[in-house]
Amino acid sequence: MSSVMQPAERSDIENRVISALKTVYDPEIPVDIWELGLVYGMQIDEARRYAKISMTLTAPACPVAGSMPEWVQNAVRGVEGIDDVDVELVWEPPWNQEMISPRARLELNLL
């Protein structure tokens, strides 16, 4: 799985997948999962039809652990051209507040 790419390295479909990921919010924190740093990686096949998302949660005992992967899968499946999506929950490295984007840190008053 490739690491999360910088904006200049992304294709159009990758940008659309990221936009879809930004519609999924952690219900306990008013910030989307992309800006929270919960998405550790995404892989899109060469045919641009299949996406695999590697992500974590803010804590293993997160109350939406059973639901959030499905939310992510549904959001990415809504991207035109993507037919199939797998979401893999991973716990390494453990998520921490340092993974939050500067933009979200500002929104959460963490700067």
From TrEMBL:
Official protein name in the record: FeS assembly SUF system protein
Domain of life according to the entry: Bacteria
Pfam families: FeS_assembly_P (PF01883)
UniProt lineage: Bacteria, Pseudomonadati, Pseudomonadota, Gammaproteobacteria, Candidatus Competibacteraceae
Every MIP18 family-like domain range: 15-88
